[in-house]
Design a protein that fits this description.
Elements (H helix, E strand, L loop, with lengths): L3 E2 L5 E2 L3 H18 L8 E3 H8 L3 H13 L4 E4 L2 E3 L5 H25 L2 H19 L3 H17 L4 H14 L11 H17 L3 H23 L1
Length: 225
Amino acid sequence: MSTAVVGSGLRIAPLARDTLQERVYTQMADLILDGEIAPGQSVTIQGLAESFDVSAMPVREALKRLTAANALTVVSGRSIGIPPLTLDRLTDLRNVRLEVEGTAIAWAAQNARDALVASLRQQLDRMEQGTATDDTKAYLRGNRAFHFAIYRSARSPTLNSLIEILWLQISPYFNLLRESGNYVSSNRHHRTMIEALAANDPVAAREAIAGDIEDSYAVLSAVLT
């Protein structure tokens, strides 16, 4: 790979390939975070490359990053899927999420403004519509948008990066929560989160998100055992 020497004396590699790889990584992460790749479902490198209209190389590079984050794994041959979830790993993710996401929403509550509350109400409407129409994908997209709107309001890129890594590992399993009725109970927690944020109450906000995390943990742990 060629480089160019700029005025500062730094040797800078061409940006185009890195930018393409980052876009592919972002698109693949979005598929995972939005529940588009469910446990038991597999995709291929070639299929992803064709869908993104790129060569296989940036897909492989993105896969390396997502494999390192325990978000994807090679299932067989060239097939890629969601790694299996053990009870120990689920418990570890639950414990870390309680701390990290609890901190994020508590910080967000201190900064919450009317615009955030209004946006969250819109996302909650979207999730309730997805539940009413049995549209799992719509619910999961709304759920992600809801939570990450809150986490961004914590104004901590470091926290957001940590939470994204956690969600890359756990969010595909949110597909398994629908039949338990968890989406309905989760929306009750979401409503409580909105109320806490509107009141700028970090304690109530942390309790609400803890209830949401604990409920999903209870369902998934029952599935795993």
